[in-house]
TrEMBL record:
The chain crosses the membrane at residues 74-92, 139-161, 168-189, 201-220. It catalyses: Fe(2+)(in) = Fe(2+)(out). One of its GO terms (molecular function) is iron ion transmembrane transporter activity. It is a multi-pass membrane protein. The keyword Methyltransferase does not apply. Keywords: Ion transport, Iron, Iron transport, Membrane, Transmembrane, Transmembrane helix, Transport, Vacuole. This is Vacuolar iron transporter. The keyword Iron applies. It comes from Phaseolus vulgaris. The lineage of its organism: Eukaryota, Viridiplantae, Streptophyta, Embryophyta, Tracheophyta. PANTHER family: FE(2+)/MN(2+) TRANSPORTER PCL1. InterPro entries: Ccc1_fam. Vacuolar Fe(2+) uptake transporter.
Amino acid sequence: MSSNQTSLNQAKFSLPNNDLEQHATTLEFEAEDNFDYSKRSQWLRAAVLGANDGLVSTASLMMGVGAVKQDVKAMILSGFAGLVAGACSMAIGEFVSVYSQLDIEVAQMKREKERMHGSGREGEGINEEKEGLPNPLQAAVASALAFSVGAMVPLLAAAFIREYKVRIGAVLAAVTFALVVFGWLGAVLGKAPVLRSSARILFGGWMAMSITFGLTKLIGSIGL
């Protein structure tokens, strides 16, 4: 009698291997679906924004100079100056911005700590909040490096081409490809629509280069 009861209990509480594997797979998918992709927003925003700005601003600057001066040295020097100035500007701007955010969050943590101390719950959750604080230096370095990477694309595309029209075409082709890649990468990492993100960045870059080239060409043609 007892042996029959034991076997029934084992049959009741044991699960087949297939069910266990299916249950584990379900948990993995639920963990992936529940992942908060907004946690990536800080470094992802700095990296994608920096790379896109480096690419578009440097290419636009080189196209603008190329509209009035066809010398390859002038385009390369203008692009390099744009890379250095832009990387420094991005780093400083990102550092100041994130540091301001850090000050706000630290002040909020102090208020929460005082409130918890008054209610006798001091220290609850403080360590976790400190780990989630933004890092101004990390954001600044990420922005500067990303900007430099983006700016290197048009520089490398124009560096070894003497023929003016071929050089302009090479810069346009390289920048177009890089814009699509940056748009796709940002969308994939942030789980956003890929086509919409790539198209938005691509047309924005084209517009920036066209306006810079056209206005510089117009001003150069009237002798200003």
